[in-house]
Amino acid sequence: MFQIFLRFFSLGLVSFGGPAAHIGYFRQTFVQELKWLDDKHYGSLVALSQFMPGPGSSQVGFAIGYHRGGLLGGIAAFLGFTLPSFILLFLLAVTSSQWLDYSFTQGIIHGLKLLAVVVVADAIWIMFKQFCQRKQAKLLMVMSCVIILLQPSMLMQFGLLIAAALVGRHYLSGEREHTAEVATERVKLNLFYLSLFVGLLLASLVMITLTKQTGITNLTELFSQFYQVGSMVFGGGHVVLPLLQSSVGDAISNDQFLTGYALAQAVPGPMFALAAFLGAEIWVQQPLIGALVATLAIFLPGFLLMLVALKSWHAISARPQVTGAIAGVNACVVGFLLAALYNPIFISAVLSPLDMALVVLGFGLFKIFKPNIFILVAGFGVTGALVGAFIG
């Protein structure tokens, strides 16, 4: 268990670049170097993480740990990979009052907000090309974006995801070639973990419905908000942004939210570790408890669903209607992310023609030269500080 923890902890210290980069780091370490599993098995775990809601790269890491050491191995992998980013974002949250008011740090934060515009725009471009190739998928993307821009709410997002799954099931189901073995293979789901996932989701929905007028007033409500978000995020990474903003928007200011998101770009590890920053900011009376509850809640649904389907993924993925439903959901979340690019990211970060020029320049350099994310973080941070000092 300690070996699993140590391997993932060392990756958590240096894994900049988001989910796609994390997948590459995992393959290099666990397939090519350590040979804990082969390429075929690893590819199936990556595919399963795309099929399930939750933090994609962290789910792959959890599954590798599970393959190596059972449930405790999966937990050790999660703790190791997430701990560095959790500690950094928690410390940034609890010390924010000491450094956030300085003009120098305000400039850095503003520069990182501009970086967020670039990174999310690039994520939308990549996801659009990957998930919106057919006309039906493009239409789902456009309609989900329009509706969320006009009616931004968690309930509306949840309804759109269900509708997109139904549309995708009928219109985006591709023909699949089945071997006789796959066609007759039975899907054997782990009902204990499925019941636990569904039970917690229903309880969180009830709790949120009962307390939506009063906001987050206890740890149960905090857990419920983040658990619901973790249950609905398909694609992981930046897709968590619009759902989190809708869910906890009343409990935290837009500026605090975007500061946390900007800082999450600057630390290694999973984007979902943003929950540590938000949990500490929301639960100020005991920030460590708030950070722990929010982080556990947002990661838990994805891990429970991985445990439900790990042993039956081959049979599940062979069913065209299932893959069609997921295709519809993926197209829908691209629309969500496009709406989030406008509100809250763009309108909170781009405040002048100079800001827009920096975004265009950054996006162009990002697409042409594809620099390391650490270089981008440093470049936008320094630029923001300089602009704040000499112009602001």
UniProtKB/TrEMBL annotation:
InterPro entries assigned: Chr_Tranpt_l_chain (IPR014047), Chromate_transpt (IPR003370)
Transmembrane segments: 6-26, 71-95, 107-128, 140-171, 191-210, 222-244, 288-310, 322-339, 345-366, 373-391
This protein's UniProt keywords: Cell membrane, Membrane, Transmembrane, Transmembrane helix
Subcellular location: Cell membrane
Membrane topology annotation: Multi-pass membrane protein
Pfam families according to UniProt: Chromate_transp (PF02417)
Region forming the signal peptide: none
Similarity comment: Belongs to the chromate ion transporter (CHR) (TC 2.A.51) family.
Protein name in UniProt: Chromate efflux transporter
